[in-house]
Amino acid sequence: MHGSKRPSTAICHPERGVSGVHRFALATGAYAGPATDQRTALMQAPRGMVLRDGLLYIAESSANDPGVAVFGNCSTEEGAAAAAADAGVSSLPSWQLYQRPYLGKIRPAPHIGLPPFQHPYGLVEMGSSARVALSAQNGGAAISLDLDDGEMAVLQQVEPPMSRSSNREKLSGPLRGLAVDGAGCLHVAERHLDEIVHYCPADGKEVGRTKVTSPIDVKVDMRENELLVGSFSKTHPQVLAFSLKDLHDEYHASHGRRAQDAATDAAAATEAKRKKNDGKSDKLKAARTYADPRLVHPAGMGVWDSKLYVLEQKGRALLRFDQKTTKFEAAVIEGLPDDPEHLLIFDTTLRDGEQVRSWCFFSFCCR
Length: 367
Description:
Blueprint: E1 20-25, E2 31-34, E3 46-52, E4 55-60, E5 67-71, H1 77-87, E6 102-106, E7 120-125, E8 131-136, E9 141-146, E10 152-157, H2 164-168, E11 175-180, E12 186-190, E13 195-200, E14 205-211, E15 215-221, E16 226-231, E17 238-243, H3 245-255, H4 259-276, E18 286-290, E19 298-304, E20 307-312, E21 317-322, E22 328-333, E23 343-349, E24 355-363
Antiparallel strand pairs: 1-2, 1-24, 3-4, 4-5, 5-6, 7-8, 8-9, 9-10, 11-12, 12-13, 13-14, 15-16, 16-17, 17-18, 19-20, 20-21, 21-22, 23-24
């Protein structure tokens, strides 16, 4: 959720907007309570998130204190009982039973500094390692972060960092979401140029660009080996699914030759393609598109059981499409109390042992 001055329902700070991360049951759409305790860790501008080894990592784009907030495992019944005793009450409300405790925040490393780290936005895993990739909306950079030791490195400086004057004028930076696929290639949404920028490997050379009007969220469907991109085009808002097979075949073929020859060939091929298409980018071809009158601003996406779930920001709803046929099926949730931002679908086990499918929504209080 993006934060609203007039939310229809407020869970926290109604004058500013609903905030924190909130849980819903995917099967029923029932609200399962906040996943984080805003009283102990007030997040002013949460964005992308990663759930790894039981810990929840959240990109926080606060202008005054950007970083990655870290929350622990969901509280147990024993922990809830102890918290109730500390509070001097017999028990806690049910919605407080499974909140995640705040553990701290990972802040920009000194050698990277604030400029490239401005306004963290996307946050995604990088394969099986402990590293995640983060996109900085105003910093123009894709940054890798080691979750074990906090080590940071700039993977790609896609665009120059925004100036202080631009930030004071509250101009929106160029980058939005990012994704790392199964071959280790990095894909970054460049909103100002209406492009997805591709790098193979993530810290390697640019291998091409794909034209997408107003790209925002980017996800990889590992099972289908596809790149999903949300577009909030004013005329044709949609979600596009791009096959990654040709890109990966080209990358693996060039990777088998000497590095210098591969880099030269890739650069020449990219330049030739740009000239041939008169500057138009077409590195990837769309295999499918998802559209519906209800879809205007696809802020978050997730795939589950061959269904594509799209978080519609302006309509404050979660929409479901059949992944193969692209047919719109239903608005799983409607009337969210604020503008939703990002989506994470995962399995969780509740007290009765029943496994349910849940997702978390972001929202933030300050604009």
